[in-house]
Every structure is written in C-alpha cells, then in structure tokens.
Amino acid sequence: MLSTYPACFLKEKTGYSVIFPDLNWLSTCGESASKAMEAAVDCLAGYLHTAQMEKKEVPSPSSMHAIDPEKIAQELDVPFDGAFINMVSVDVAAYAKVHFEKSVKKTLSIPAWLNQLALEKNINFSQVLQEALIAKLQLH
Q: Which residues make Cβ contacts (< 8 Å) with residue 49, sequence separation at least 6?
C-alpha cells in the first residue's frame, strides 16, 4: 500500500533540508533535490515502518496545499528562497523488504560439541543468533 505525505523542501547552501510537518517535523537532507527526495523516501519509509512495528498511530497526511513553506522556513529561521512542497510516496512494505528486513549471511565459529548438540535438537542457528542479538542490544 502506498503511503504519501507532504514534505517541505528548503534550499540551503549545501543542498536541501526536507521536513515532514505532519510527522512531528521529521527531517532529513540531501546534497541535491534528487538526493533529498531519495533521503525523504527512506526517512518516510523508516518512520512509518517503525511505527507499524511498534503499533503506534500515525497522523493522517495533510493536503499538500495546507502546508505553508514560507511559514516553515520562518519557524526554522532559514531563507524561504527555493522552498517548495512536494508529496513523498513510498510502499512501506516493499521498501522494508529491500532495505530494512534484508537478511545478510554471517559466518561464525562455535565449538564442535555445541554444534552437534544443537543439530541433534534441530536448533535454528539463525533464529537463535537473532534472538540473542536482540536481547544483547536490548531491542525488546
């Protein structure tokens, strides 16, 4: 499902800052307008994916015409020149599969006796490692 939110693109000396006013002023940046749009898609996908994973409500998007780039520039004390509003769209589920949930192969070493016991018990090594890392990193 496609999610679309308005974003304010503010021209700065070294590129663009991007602000999502509907999402607690979520922000990102890019060295050019196209890099800023790529960063905006990634930022929006990450925010919405995290909200889904944590079962948090996300505000509905405003109309593109309801966002005033001049007001946002004033609030952030940045020049208004070159500011514009654009809709940023992302299929969160598809984006997450490629960028957030992609598995990577790791090679590790364990004692032979531990390997044998785990194989006898049909232990899923990948699952155990993931669970251990989540616990160790206190991500629960």
A: 92, 95, 96, 100
Amino acid at 27: S
Please list the pLDDT of the chain residue by residue as tens digits (140 residues).
Answer: 899 999 999 999 899 999 999 999 999 999 999 999 999 999 999 999 999 999 999 999 999 999 999 999 999 888 888 899 999 999 999 999 888 877 778 888 889 999 899 999 999 988 899 889 888 988 76
CB 51 within 8 A of CB 62: no
**Total-model pTM:** 0.72
CB 74 within 8 A of CB 10: no
Give the start-to-end residue ranges of the domains of the chain. 2-99, 104-140
| CATH of region 2-99, choose from 3.40.50.2000, 1.10.1330.10, 3.60.21.10, 3.30.160.250 | 3.30.160.250
Total residues belonging to the chain: 140
The runs of H, that is alpha helices, within 14-64 are 33-53
Which residues contact residue 52 at a Cβ distance below 8 angstroms, ignoring those fewer than 6 apart?
Answer: 92
